[in-house]
Input
Amino acid sequence: MPKQIPDIVISRLPTYLRALLQMSQEGRQVTSSQELGERLGISAAQIRKDLSQFGEFGKQGTGYNIEFLANQVKEILNVNRVWDVAIVGAGDIGRALAGYNGFSERGFRIKMIFDNKPEKIGTSAGGFVIKDSKTMKEEILAAGIKMAMIAVPATHAQGVADQLVEAGVKAILSYAPVNLNVPAGVRVQNIDPSIHLQRMTYYLEQ
Amino acid sequence: MPKQIPDIVISRLPTYLRALLQMSQEGRQVTSSQELGERLGISAAQIRKDLSQFGEFGKQGTGYNIEFLANQVKEILNVNRVWDVAIVGAGDIGRALAGYNGFSERGFRIKMIFDNKPEKIGTSAGGFVIKDSKTMKEEILAAGIKMAMIAVPATHAQGVADQLVEAGVKAILSYAPVNLNVPAGVRVQNIDPSIHLQRMTYYLEQ
Output
C-alpha cells in the first residue's frame, strides 16, 4: 500500500499542473522549482518537497522537463483520463459550466445537465438538452457517472447531494453557499465567491 | 503590532463564519467546536486552536454563543462592513456574479461591471448597465474600489489584472484559469472548477 500523502500536498498539485500546462503552451520545455514557485507564489523548497513525495522528477541542477512532469502530475491526480461530470441546476452558473470549453483539456467532460423547472426542461444549455431532475438518480446511475457539480439554490443543495450520493457519485463540486453533509467515501469541494473574498479582506486596510 | 496569524488559519475562518450564520438562520443560539467540526469536516481541536489565536470566545463546557462568535469572526475578517466590488467581464460568469444576491449578507456589494465588447456595453447585467472597460481604470479609481472579480478569457486576464492594480485594487478574485502576477501588497484568489475537480480525482477509484 502506498504511503498516505497529506491532503494539503494533493491540494497544491492541480495548481502546479495548471502552471506546467501554461508553460507548455508558451512553447517552454524545461522549468525549475524556483520558476514554478515565482509563478505560483509558493517557495521553491515547498514545491520540491511536495513533488518528492511521489518520486524523483528532475535532476539536480537541470530542472524539470515540463511535459514529463505534467504527465506525471496528471497520472498522480488521475486526470490522465477523462471523467464524466453531471451538472445539477441550469441557472446562470449551471449554464456557464455547461458551456465552458475548458474542461476537456483538464480531464473532464460534461455529460448531462438537470433542472427541476418545467419551463427549462427540454430546452438547451451549452449544447445539452436540460433533463428533468426527477430522472437524475437513474440517469447518473445508468451512465456510471462518479462526479457532479451542484449549482442549485442553497436550500435545495443538500437534497440534491443526497440523491447524487444514492446515484453513486463520489465527488461533488458545489456552488451552493452551504456546508453539505455526505457519507464517508464521498468528497465535496465548495466554490463560494464570498468565502474567497473574505479570505482577502482580512489583509485589506480599513 | 498584533502577532502574525498563519494564512491557513485565516483561510478557514470564512467557512466557520458561513456555518455560524447558517446555524443562526436555523434559529440556533449556542454551538460547540464539536458540532462546528462535524458540520465542516474539521476536528474540534483544530477549530478551538484556530479561534484561540484571536482570544477567548467561549467558556469551557458552555460552548460558543453563535451570534457573538459570528460577529467576532466578521470583525477579524473585516466584513463587519460592506466592501464595494467591481466585476470585469460580462460573459456567463460575470453576469451570474452581477445577478447573485448572496453577496450583501456576506460583506460585499457589486458596484459596477465592465466589458470590452461594443455590443455588450450599455446593455444590462444583473441590474447594472455594462460599462466600457476602456473607462475601467478611471472609474474604479474614482470610486475608490479596492476589490474586483475577473471573469474574462484566460488570454485577457493578466492585462485586466495589471489595469486593476493601477486603479488601486488590492484584492482580486479571478475566474480565469491562469496564474496572475501581481505586485506585493495585492492579493489574488482563484476560482477554477477544474482545479477543484482535480483535487478530488486523486481520491477516486480508477
